[in-house]
Amino acid sequence: NAGVTQTPKFRVLKTGQSMTLLCAQDMNHEYMYWYRQDPGMGLRLIHYSVGEGTTAKGEVPDGYNVSRLKKQNFLLGLESAAPSQTSVYFCASSSDRATDTQYFGPGTRLTVL
Amino acid sequence: SQQGEEDPQALSIQEGENATMNCSYKTSINNLQWYRQNSGRGLVHLILIRSNEREKHSGRLRVTLDTSKKSSSLLITASRAADTASYFCATADSTLTFGKGTMLLVSP
Fold first, then answer.
1. A112 - beta bridge partners?
2. Which pLDDT tens digit goes with each residue over A71-92?
3. Which of A5, A30, A53, A78 is the most exposed place for a label (fewest CB within 10 A)?
4. Which residues in chain B have Cβ-Cβ distances shorter than 8 Å to A102?
């Protein structure tokens, strides 16, 4: 039982490049989330999903897109990376409600030059 | 916008001492949760306290919730070096909103 996994662990991009971060969970959870963590800012919600095929905007959605084609996977895309998107990205999942306990992945450290 | 705000931002204690962290929030909540983050790792859930509960225990952890003051506290008793981490409160209304965290350093 791997829990929540994230791919890749580290990535360096140049401004304007695109990439996709993959999150996978094996707990059959309905809800999945993408957060970013910046120094002194805590965690901020980017997008979330309440089930397969659904997505919703969080606090800081601009510059990101997401897709939930399969229940176990939640993808975060950056179409044209900017230095302001340099951050650590965390994926999480929860069982029944967005207010339930969340289970986090190990994070992806992204640097945009 | 941050809902929960932890206090203090940083706390340094000796092994065996108790550590207390506080969280204040602004709007009504469904529940309040505490998470721990070791350096470079993902967050780990510690404890959840519902809005109709006043106190909850889990091992060496004690959490209180005062909805009239919109505040919560996390007490770690008999701290160990392994408790060194950042601790976050998260308030639950429609989703979870995390505070900026308290960095706890426990020295041997």
1. A13
2. 999 999 999 999 999 999 999 9
3. A53
4. 43, 45, 90, 96
Q: Which two tokens stand for residue A61?
A: 């959605």
Best of A43, A45, A57, A59 to disrupt the B interface by mutation (most B CBs within 10 Å)? A43
CA distances from B80 to A9, B33, B45, B104 (A): 29, 22, 18, 11
Residues of B with CB below 8 A from A58's CB?
A: 95
Tens-digit pLDDT profile for residues A9-68: 999 999 999 999 999 999 999 999 999 999 877 899 999 999 999 999 999 999 999 999
C-alpha distances in Å from residue A111, one per residue of A12, A58, A79, B96 = 5, 22, 15, 26
Residue whose tokens read 């401004």: A15
Q: Which residues on adjacent β-strands are paired with residue B34?
A: B47, B89
Partner A contacted by B92 (CB < 8 A)? yes
Q: pLDDT for B19-50, tens place per residue?
A: 999 999 998 999 999 999 999 899 999 999 99
